[in-house]
Design a protein that fits this description.
α9 crosses α12. This protein is α/β, with parallel strands linked by helices. It contains 12 helices and 14 strands. The strands form 3 sheets. Strands 5, 6, 7, 8, 10, 13 and 14 form a 7-stranded mixed β-sheet that branches. It has a 4-stranded parallel β-sheet with strand order 1-2-3-4, sandwiched between helices. The chain has a 3-stranded mixed β-sheet with strand order 9-12-11, covered by helices on one side. The mean pLDDT is about 95. Helix content is about 35%, strand content about 20%. A hairpin with a 6-residue loop joins β6 (about 215) and β7.
């Protein structure tokens, strides 16, 4: 049995309670939702998840589904495939609803070609489940198709996996590698000048963020060990739909660059802004994207214009700010700015002195802007 989009969600809901009605299910432009805290893709029957590379409605879920299906017992019974150059609408035919075209990414291939590519994935799945009724040649073709789809999907997901791990590494004591890079960006120094710098980040829950205070220690002259704190925040949906999987903002607590540069025996320089880290995040996302995705974005995508930070006058004003601020400039450009908080080295509360707090654009969210948000509803 197969379902497309919302039809896939309805199908998996029914079959989960009635597994005897199907030998397997096929989700096209759909996925197994994570409801009520359940992040497992263990399912009573085999499941194929096939999502177009340009599916503006579902692509964000593919990396998560790939990981959860692998954890569910391997990608044999629960394969997740990205379909080259196909979008969400191209599973269907006829008139496409406007709410789909407004969120989809334009495809360079015809509906007929997209149908063929989806069909190849579906056929290989069906053959794999029922090898006893197919010929050796048919089985061989199905296995080769699956191998090609798996290689393409794994390669396609590399930028998403890389960027996702920059938000938090998932360790027992989690850390964000992007925070480490962010502190270095603020210091505005070259690699030689930062040779004696070490930065350690701690990802903390929101309830601990207010009390967390970055620090700097020196075990020797012109050395610095900096501790930073961060809290990635994610969009939520009761239905697990219509939300990006990347962090909407990283609440970031850095040590003020003046203080760290002094520990490193470096002269004062004009201060950087959170904006500078956000620009670096977007540049990194562009470098991670495939040539095809980068060229598509540069050709038709909505560009981000990074504006100066809005500095909050007090701690709770930053801590409880709504995150990054987006505003439409025109059809081709959107402005983005951060809320920040700076306490001077001589701040009257010593434990809160010399801090630089930022609302950061995650490289993962920047990547999803390049692949999804920035190119939705566009035309080639």
């Amino acid at each position: 049995m197969a379902g497309h989009s919302l039809g896939g969600i309805m199908l998996e809901t029914y079959v989960k309670d009635h597994p005897d009605v199907a030998a397997g299910i096929i989700l096209l432009g759909s996925y197994l939702p994570d409801l009520f805290g359940d992040h497992s893709n263990v399912f009573p029957v085999p499941v194929l998840t096939a999502v177009g590379e340009l599916d503006g409605l579902t692509l964000t879920y593919v990396y998560r589904e790939w990981m959860e299906s692998a954890d569910a017992g391997g990608l044999g019974d629960f394969p997740v495939y990205v379909i080259d150059d196909a979008n969400h609408a191209q599973v269907a035919s006829g008139d496409i609803p406007s709410f789909v075209t407004e969120q989809d990414v334009p495809s360079p291939i015809s509906f007929e070609e997209a149908h063929q590519r989806y069909a190849q994935a579906v056929a290989s799945f069906i053959v794999k489940l029922n090898e006893e009724i197919f010929s050796e040649d048919q089985i061989s073709i199905a296995l080769e198709t699956q191998s090609q789809l798996l290689r393409y999907t794994n390669q396609f997901l590399v930028p998403f996996a890389t960027a996702s791990l920059m938000e938090t590494d998932g360790a027992e004591v989690p850390s964000s590698s992007w925070m480490i890079e962010g502190q270095r960006v603020l210091l505005d120094a070259n690699d030689e000048e930062l040779a004696n710098l070490e930065v350690i980040d701690f990802v903390v829950p929101f309830e601990d963020l207010g009390d967390a205070k970055p620090g700097v220690n020196s075990s020797a002259e012109c050395q610095a060990l900096v501790s930073t704190f961060s809290q990635p925040q994610y969009d939520s949906s009761v239905a697990d739909a219509n939300t990006l999987q990347s962090a909407s903002v990283i609440k970031a607590k850095f040590k003020l660059e003046d203080v760290v540069r002094e520990s490193l025996c470096l002269p004062e320089v004009p201060r950087k802004q959170c904006m500078d880290i956000n620009i670096a995040a977007f540049d990194l996302a562009l470098s991670l994207a495939t040539d095809e995705a980068r060229d598509r974005f540069m050709s038709i995508g909505t560009k981000l214009v990074f504006d100066n930070d809005k500095v909050s006058p007090w701690g709770p004003g930053w801590e409880f700010s709504v995150g990054l601020h987006y505003s439409t400039i025109n059809e081709t450009h959107t402005k983005l700015y951060s809320t920040s908080l700076i306490s001077e080295p001589d701040f009257f509360i010593p434990t809160a002195a010399g801090m630089h707090y930022c609302d950061l654009l995650s490289p993962f969210r920047a990547l999803e802007w390049i692949y999804i948000t920035g190119v939705q509803g566009k035309t080639l």
